[in-house]
Amino acid sequence: MAKDMTLLWGSGSPPCWRIMIALEEKNLQGYNQKLLSFEKGEHKSKEVMEINPRGQLPAFKCGDKIINESCGVCFFLECKYKTQGTKLIPDCEVGRAQILQRVFEVNALVEKSSSVIYYNWMVPEGERHDSAVKRNKEALTAELKLWEGYLQASSGFIVGKDFTLADVVVYPNVAYLFHYGLSEQRYPKLAEYYKGLMNRPSIKASWPPTWKNAPKQETLKDI
Amino acid sequence: MAKDMTLLWGSGSPPCWRIMIALEEKNLQGYNQKLLSFEKGEHKSKEVMEINPRGQLPAFKCGDKIINESCGVCFFLECKYKTQGTKLIPDCEVGRAQILQRVFEVNALVEKSSSVIYYNWMVPEGERHDSAVKRNKEALTAELKLWEGYLQASSGFIVGKDFTLADVVVYPNVAYLFHYGLSEQRYPKLAEYYKGLMNRPSIKASWPPTWKNAPKQETLKDI
């Protein structure tokens, strides 16, 4: 059905996962896909570079059209398969406006999560400062409170009472936070959202294989 | 004509400028707008916070629909006024795929520009390192070479030979780089793009007022 599409992906990468959820929601199973290993540096392989010259995953192709930006792929699929599977962008203007807001706003969540989770990876040893770690953690806490509030005001999804493009884009990042040890007690609405969608078919079918039976991470336990 | 829209903006902010260009391209002049001063902290005013609780500009409203993410606003306007003014997203799938790729890929350019331009603003004095400054500059140089290559392969616009959503989103960031002293000699395709679109009516009409007759900045002169 989706034999003209190819996805090279890495397990646990929120951008890769977004595309996989979108493909499931649009009933586009059966695409060519290959799981690559970040640890082995396979995201820098010739195979990836030919599609994504940045040497990053995802690398995605639909026929001869290449889009590697995960949100771009989601928009592309929704536009191409508007009437197939889940309608990810509603016709209603109010809903559409809120969804567009959250889809782009997720960048702030990604940036603030990364600056905490990847601090030691991004900052060489001689440049690390406890004051920076503290500031990054405070920024993430403030950011998470905003999203906790958004979920408080909605009905089980990021926007309103239906699964939309906002969930496709935001859910993998929320799951990522809990995978890295975010407290379910301190962020009850985020936890409810995380657990509430865990068994949705599109999400279950694309759950990162390396997360299954993985030991609990503690990176975010004090956030 | 666009009396139901309100834009609170700051001069020189690429996200604010994107919305203004999109509004011009879609023939949506006559919206309510107010220029606020970052220097005076007006982006943290009650007036802004009521629309954008992050206390950031732009703050944008269309009727009772609020979208503050600039790219979200551009998608919203293109969708609402599909047949009015410039067609910003083509029906052609090849073009659409390329445009979506660049619209989201611009985040890498923004992030790498900001880490150089705002280093002293973002990093407290005691945490600054020459090695970090050098690394950030190298990352920006590598990023700029990618965009130089994209322009080499296109025909005067970010994608192909027409002005699209990719230009609405990317142009303000390119102009920003040159405002901060990027070398026109070292980045000739970016410079050609910058100067080539400077007099396009939508861009000319929305040119940042504080940039007119401003002294030349030198922050990026050695990039």
UniProtKB/TrEMBL annotation, chains A, B:
GST N-terminal domain residues: 3-85
Alphabetized InterPro entries for the sequence: Glutathione-S-Trfase_C-like, Glutathione-S-Trfase_C_sf, Glutathione_S-Trfase, Glutathione_S-Trfase_N, GST_C, Thioredoxin-like_sf
Pfam families: GST_C_3 (PF14497), GST_N_2 (PF13409)
Coiled-coil region list: none
SUPFAM superfamilies assigned: GST C-terminal domain-like, Thioredoxin-like
Domain GST C-terminal, first and last residues per copy: 92-219
Family classification: Belongs to the GST superfamily.
Name of protein: Glutathione S-transferase rho
Organism: Maylandia zebra (zebra mbuna)
